[in-house]
Specification:
Number of helices: 10
Order of helices and strands: HHHHHHHHHH
Oligomer: single chain
Strand content: under 5%
Largest sheet: none
């Protein structure tokens, strides 16, 4: 089950009031990119893609956390009965389904880390997970970035970016370009979109 588009926008606005920051517009950019790519993909629902993109970082509602935002978002969405959004809160940070690839501080309790690890093991990854992983790696707070530019920004802020994760993001871009038959940057209006 998922919230409606309008409900998801309300959830994001409420979350931003609890913890203001650039993550809100990053989420809007992710949602925009996901919707535009889904419109060009057979079998993907653009509204669903938009909602999942909008809510992927909703765990940031609960404060400034690194890995903790993953468990916070997952738990929050599950508490509302939005299992698909909960899965995206989890999977968007792990495109190889390994907690070791996380970039940032491991600021979870043992229980939260166990929750993430166990949920990742059982997550059935599909094209919505892959789409949000890609769009998360394209989305800046000011608009759409080149994927290498976004990953370099993350590397500057956190000091590293695992090569396996970097390569996986590039493969996701190629995967969706093949699925859509289009240049991803044109689809997501890279040079013109502003949240």
């Amino acid at each position: 089950m998922l919230p409606t588009r309008e409900q998801a926008e309300i959830l994001l606005k409420e979350a931003e009031s609890c913890n203001p920051g650039p993550w809100g517009n990053h989420s809007r950019t992710t949602a925009h990119c996901a919707e535009k790519i889904a419109q060009a993909c057979n079998g993907l629902d653009p509204d669903k893609a938009y909602i999942l993109g909008l809510l992927h970082d909703i765990g940031r509602k609960f404060g400034v956390r690194h890995l903790g935002h993953v468990s916070d978002g997952y738990t929050y969405m599950m508490s509302l009965g939005y299992e698909e959004a909960a899965r995206i809160c989890l999977t968007h940070s792990f495109n190889t389904q390994s907690v070791q690839e996380y970039i940032g501080n491991f600021d979870t309790t043992k229980e939260e880390l166990k929750l993430i690890q166990e949920a990742l093991k059982t997550a059935a990854i599909d094209d919505y997970d892959r789409l949000i992983q890609l769009c998360d790696s394209l989305a800046g707070a000011e608009g759409v970035l080149a994927i290498e530019e976004r990953m370099a920004d993350v590397k500057r802020r956190y000091g590293s970016f695992p090569e396996k994760k970097w390569n996986c993001n590039l493969m996701l871009k190629q995967y969706f370009e093949e699925k859509t038959g289009s240049d991803i940057y044109i689809l997501v209006e890279k040079d013109t979109f502003k949240p």
